[in-house]
């Protein structure tokens, strides 16, 4: 077991990393503001499930196997970039439209919001490398398996809390009203940021 006084600074840093702007965070914010609490939470949980899968894969040591087969990383890279570009084009189309936003600007089933979040995170090849690096740096060599479980479970719990709090915060009436009043500005920003994220995924060096 890792003592709590050694673990809590890691969890604080993890919370900041989870809440920093990125494809998943942008999607959560957009879903919560445009579709409300339900869609925001559904998408956040989808992202979290994707993170859970990568955490387990990295914990089982399969990240090394993926690095040995670079084509897997490449395939994920292009799939993720393509999906982010799709989201960028979708937001751009809304930003250029002349229709008025309604109270529920995003009309989609909760399962679709969940799937969007899951897809965004599962097609991000940097996620498994991030989890693998976390385990390698934090867990001392020769530690018992319980240390791996402790770090993984703690970081996943923090991720779940941060993502859900963001979904709840951005679905509040005051923020939703601001979204409705300036929805084209928001969607234009999302289009630019999703496009930038796609470019970063394509150009980032994820394999040494």
UniProtKB/TrEMBL annotation:
GO terms for cellular component: plasma membrane. The keyword Cell membrane applies. Signal peptide: none annotated. It is found in: Cell membrane. It comes from the Bacteria. One of its GO terms (molecular function) is amino acid transmembrane transporter activity. The chain crosses the membrane at residues 12-34, 41-62, 68-89, 118-140, 146-170. It is a multi-pass membrane protein. Pfam families: LysE. Its main location: membrane. Keywords: Cell membrane, Membrane, Transmembrane, Transmembrane helix. Coiled coil: none annotated. InterPro entries: LeuE-type. The keyword Membrane applies. This is Threonine/homoserine/homoserine lactone efflux protein. It comes from Celeribacter neptunius.
